[in-house]
Every structure is written in structure tokens, then in C-alpha cells.
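Collaborator request, handled under Task 6.
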Amino acid sequence: MPSARSKSPKKGGAKKSSKKELLVDAASLRPYGVNYRDIITTPLGVEVTVLGVNRVDGLLWVRWPGNVDSPVPSKAKTKHELEDYGYFKRPTSAHIQRSIDERTAAYFNQRYYGGSGPKTASIRLPWPEGSPAFTALTPIDRPRPTTAPV
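C-alpha cells returned to the collaborator:
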């Protein structure tokens, strides 16, 4: 005999969309004193990346290692409140180092795994004047020896 539980329809209900609309413009991020993709150190000592500000509630969203996205504490609405909770923006040198690391990883993946290379890898820049490489590539302007065959 089937039980009453098996006869009842499944209750799924309407699923909420987990898609959040984040604002990344400077005006939205100004109260927090950060920019898009800035690195912030958390009270735990973990470095997270700024994703943007949620359009609905105005909370700052960050990406933790492992691609976990979450908002900062809901009571932190300004830069000073973020710092009170222990969230501090990393210096510019950390952002430069991240760019270097991303470029090195892209170059490695291109070289060894056939991935796409760094964005600027195909640009051939001219040699600066006065450099040893530049002078080595320039033709020598001296007269042809008189003993050379014509």
C-alpha cells in the first residue's frame, strides 16, 4: 500500500534568481573608498577582491579565494565602518604585483598548455634610441673598402 507521502506532489515552489546586479562605477564605490578589483585584507588576514555594490541593498560584495562571493557586514556602509570591522584596502604595490602574477600565469599557460597569452604579448615595441640593442641592429655607415670586389 502506497503511503500518503508518496502521493503528495513535490513542493518546489518558485526558485529565486541568485543573479545579483552589481554596480562597479566609481560613484557607487566611493563611500567605501575602493575601486573595482581592489584588494582588501579581511579581519581573518585573507585577501579578497572587490566585485561591486549591490543595486538593491547597497552592500559591498567581495570575492574570496575559491571564487566564493559574499557581502561585507551589513552594518558597514562607509570606509570608516569597514575599517572598524577590520577590512583594509591593500596598497598599490599589491595591485601591481597581482597584475604581474596574472601576466606570468597567462604566459605560462600559453607556453605550456596552448592557452591564450597576455594581452600585450603580440605588441612589438621599437627599441629605444641609444640602447645597445638598437645600435647593434643599425647598419654601419662607413665606406666600402677599396679592395672589395665590385
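The cover message to the collaborator said: "The CA atoms of residues 30 and 125 lie 37 Å apart. The mean pLDDT is 84. Please let us know whether this matches your experimental observations."
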